[in-house]
Amino acid sequence: MSSAGLNGEVGGIHRFVVFGDICGSGTLDMAEKKLQRAAMYAAFDEAYGSVGVEPGTFHQEDRGDGILVALRPDVPPTLMVGRWIDTLYESLRAHNQGRSRPLRLRIGMNAGLVVQDRHGLVGRAVDLAARLCDSPPAKRIMNEVPEVDLLVVVSDWLYVSVVAEGGRYVEPGHYRPARIRAKETDETAWFHVPRRPAPPLIGPEGELPPEGEGEPAVAGERPPAEGSRTGVGPSRGDGPAPRTGGGSRTYHVGGDLLDVHGNTIHGGFTGIRKGVEQQRTEQSAEHGSGAGEPE
Questions:
Q1: Please, which residues bridge with residue 186 across strands?
Q2: Model's pTM, two decimal places?
Q3: CA nearest neighbour of 104 among 3, 32, 173
Q4: What residues are paired with 177 via a beta bridge?
Q5: What sign for the dihedral angle of Cα 272, 276, 282, 283?
Q6: Tens digit of pLDDT at every position of the chain (295 positions)
């Protein structure tokens, strides 16, 4: 597809851009690289077919361990953020079943003006799609949560204009925003893992925990109920189930009490009640053990 404009000048055309990358390809030997590249291309081809995008009707560049794609302007973007993603996920799931080295992909998606010349694609829409895919939050999620095989990161414009409108196979409520700051990029991006209510590590306000302290989101785990009373522990059924975290973190929930050990607590409180065992210890220290004293 030519981007030539009036008087032979090159102009941009609004196109949907996809940038895909194989995670951990640097750790693969040559045989594994060839296998995963072939599987990646097969998964992309199956996804194209599911939305009626025929071979030869789009621009696709090989990036070694990745793919850069610009689609025709007449391809409905809702299909790309819906059925295309869903088919890609199912293709990866089928390929990875029983494999010790699964194919895992990061996908950046954006749309905007793209210029195509004899060397390839150029434009801010292309740059941003690549940076969404290669962003630190995206790499961190895939590094720290090995059970995730597909992570999709879309631009803020694409989320607000297309994803948020919904549609078949589109899951707008399962995306979470996070800020991306890299090179000259300072953008809000939206992260999504198919079949999960929220991408792991990214909180509801787009915050990421410090390195090494993130915990994968657990399917079905509920956030604390809105309007929780400050300083009062949740009653039964009022939040996440009791759990023991890494290191010295320990949480015990029962009745109207929340017992927390080995943590730094931030925020306002109306009161903190000491545990029963701690009260008994302090009372014993105040009155003495009683040994050697007359009754």
A1: 181
A2: 0.69
A3: 32
A4: 190
A5: positive
A6: 444 443 444 568 999 999 999 999 888 889 999 999 999 999 999 999 999 999 999 999 998 889 999 999 999 999 999 999 999 999 999 999 999 999 999 999 999 999 988 888 999 999 999 999 999 999 999 999 999 999 999 999 999 999 999 999 999 999 999 999 877 778 999 999 999 999 998 887 777 777 655 444 333 333 333 333 323 333 233 333 333 344 444 434 344 444 444 544 444 444 444 544 555 555 555 555 444 444 4
Two tokens, residue 136 = 């630190």
